[in-house]
Design a protein that fits this description.
Chains A, B: Its main location: membrane. Chains A, B: It is a multi-pass membrane protein. Two copies of one chain form a homodimer. Chain A is an alpha+beta fold. The first copy, chain A, has two domains: 6-283, Deoxyribonuclease I, Chain A (4-Layer Sandwich); 296-406. Chain A is built from nine helices and 15 strands. In chain A, a hairpin with a 2-residue loop joins strand 6 (117-125) and strand 7 (128-136). The longest helix of chain A is centred in the C-terminal third of the chain and has 56 residues, at 351-406. Chain A binds chain B through residues 71-77, 79, 90-97, 99, 113, 115, 120, 161, 165-166, 168-169, 352, 355-356, 358-359, 362-363, 366, 373, 376-377, 380-381, 383-384, 387-388, 391, 395, and chain B through 71-77, 79, 90-97, 99, 113, 115, 120, 161, 165-166, 168-169, 352, 355-356, 358-359, 362-363, 366, 373, 376-377, 380-381, 383-384, 387-388, 391, 395.
């Protein structure tokens, strides 16, 4: 590799809102997305919410010349919705499905059925090992009373752990996706603090797009005021994050975000805005790196965010245990009621009523039993994340103490 | 690090058969296990089937002086059963829960409820980065008609992928656990071929234990003839596997396996035998490594095993799709039957029969619906593994073609 080596990387990210039978103008939007990607000739296009594998196959065929490598990350009952199109050969593929992803009985929200995941692609570009990750975390339906907050924090931690452990030999790490978190949200801070990833919007030298880098805006005709909640102008929940690891330096030359319209005409490609980043990778010995990953200041803010996440998980565990206990009591009472119904059914007086009540009671017992088992598993999974956080917290404190005693 | 550097690593592995209310002499065996580990002073003790967190806490307390670092890998509803005790500080912890792990309706087998997983510990020993993995795969209940074979192959692939992607910067990789696979089984070959891990039993200079390295033997009073199936003398399903990566060389000096008795008296510690390995790590430039990971011969045997696994997964996908279709038909028929029962209940003739049949019919519809969704998810997960295998197969063939055209 030459000393004045430089690699230019053009990346596209979009939450496609491609939900069969639900999303408006689906076929038309997917067709125009294909045309746009072919025209723009990106290095990498990372897509979320492609919940129709037929649409992925359609895109694969349409993009085959410009993007010969493609992959769909299968997961859950419906699919993760994640897919990727690459101009360069994909060397390796891997994925991690989040352990916690909402509740199966919240059918109207549907996240549980998708098997939300993070996908990893390893690419070798002019001798640079690039680990590109694409993800989509659990949606936020009600910011004021967010029952999925703990799950999203746990997902952010699993994402951070997956990136940390799988990117140790990568030169450049890139994460794109719909995190369903605002920039200052706990999960977002945890992810950035632990992995050392930089936010393209905050770091770019040239941003072109809606104010505050919003990726869901009121100008988009598919976005309702309800989607934006208490943020009438917009929210930023889609990200391009990156870092360079060993002896490389990465910067974001330009970041362009669509502004509620298709870049070439008036109808938007999705209810989210597309992110288009131009990244530049060049040689930079570690001492030239302007932001060392874990100096004393970073360690102390890492400790703060780890503590906060640890506490949030503690609350989640308490809630999960409460639901486990409640559902277990209901199961027990339901069983007692079934015994009572059996006794009544043998007599003559209330026989018909007993038989009529039998069916909903059996349903109640089975349903409450399943809910109890589900929350037992939830508590176990949250406990696992909390134990991992506790361990990292201990190590971070050790490092802090060590630095303080040296200075 | 000195040029004549050498690191001695003493490792203990045991499937503890610690199942509350089921396993015989549980408390006594766990107590004696603690005593034994304290006496022997291993570097690392990796345990499976510790399905009581109280027992883990008891061991943690008992072993605190000799093994100050310990971790329990929480998972599923019951727990993964995996835990570890280390004489050296644990730098990092991570775990991966297998996507496929049997069927929830096979309650008597129980594997689904455990959330079988692989746990990872990163240790820094005299400058050597050691990635130690502990795992337990789905049990084999009937070798002649093994309905879990595809799931175990999928688990072996996920395990291989997890090791491959998380150990890229490790100097030494160690995997211990109960793989529930015989040495020549498809999943075992896939794991070893893809990761390049060596089997301590086959590589050791000094083996001391039952013939063929069996880890479940007829001499063990807790093992029934039924457990051994068509192998009356024993089976080898517990392993110590290892490899050195960059510039290091690892060898197994001794491997000792218990012989159906506690090493210090007559009652065994578990229904499985314990494995005790002494590994030696020293500097060895790559060219001195006697077994390069992926030469032409290795590539062709990797291709063979990848193909075989791909086909097995194909069969699994067909089965999962059949069950999805069957359960969907049953759900549909059940719904029709419910409509019929509603009609009958409005009349006088068969009213009581209709009301009596209502309850089991609702159960049938819900049960069949759940089974259908489960197998849909199973097909998706198997499809994901098959796609990953397909990708690796393509890359391996490319490498083979490249080697052939060069020679």
């Amino acid at each position: 590799m030459k000393p004045n080596f430089s690699l230019r990387l053009r990346v596209f990210n979009l939450n496609c809102w491609d939900i069969p039978y639900v999303s408006k103008h689906r076929a038309d939007r997917i067709e125009r997305l294909g045309d746009f990607l072919n025209t723009e000739n990106f290095d990498l296009a990372l897509l979320e919410e492609v919940w129709s594998e037929q649409d992925f196959q359609y895109l694969r065929q349409k993009l085959a010349v410009i993007y010969p490598a493609a992959h769909y990350f299968k997961s859950g009952i419906i699919g993760s919705g994640l897919c990727v199109f690459s101009k360069h050969p994909i060397q390796e593929i891997c994925q991690h499905i989040y352990t916690l992803n909402g509740y199966p009985y919240m059918i109207h929200h549907g996240d549980w059925f998708c098997g939300k995941a993070v996908g990893l692609l390893v690419l070798h570009l002019s001798g640079v090992v690039l680990n590109a990750y694409v993800t989509h975390l659990h949606a936020e339906y009600n910011r004021q009373k967010d029952i999925y907050l703990t799950h999203r924090v746990a997902q952010a931690w699993e994402l951070a752990q997956f990136i940390h452990h799988t990117s140790k030999k990568a030169d450049v790490v890139l994460l794109c996706g719909d995190l369903n978190m605002h920039p200052g949200d706990l999960g977002c801070c945890l992810l950035k603090e632990y992995t050392g990833l930089h936010d393209a919007y905050l770091k770019t030298q040239d941003f072109n797009g809606p104010e505050e880098g919003y990726t869901m805006i009121k100008q988009n005709c598919y976005v309702s005021q309800q989607d934006l909640g208490p943020f009438p102008f917009g929210i930023r929940i889609d990200y391009v994050l990156y870092k360079a690891v060993s002896g490389f330096y990465i910067s974001c030359k330009t970041l362009k975000t669509t502004t509620g319209h298709h870049p070439h005409n008036d109808t938007p490609l999705s209810d989210h805005e597309a992110l288009m980043a131009t990244l530049c990778v060049r040689h930079g010995p570690p001492e030239q790196d302007p932001s060392p990953p874990h100096g004393p200041a970073e360690t102390s803010s890492l400790i703060r965010v780890l503590r906060e996440a640890w506490m949030e998980l503690g609350l989640g565990i308490a809630r999960a245990r409460w639901w486990t206990a409640f559902a277990s009591y209901v199961t027990g009472l339901g069983l007692l009621f079934l015994v009572l119904l059996c006794v009544l059914a043998t007599g003559e007086g209330a026989r018909e009523v007993a038989i009529l009540l039998w069916s909903p009671s059996v349903g109640l017992v089975l349903g409450a039993g399943a809910v109890s088992l589900f929350h037992m598993q939830e508590a176990k999974s949250l406990g696992r994340v909390q134990a991992e956080l506790q361990h990292v917290l201990g190590k971070a404190k050790e490092a802090q103490d060590c630095t303080q005693s040296l200075s």
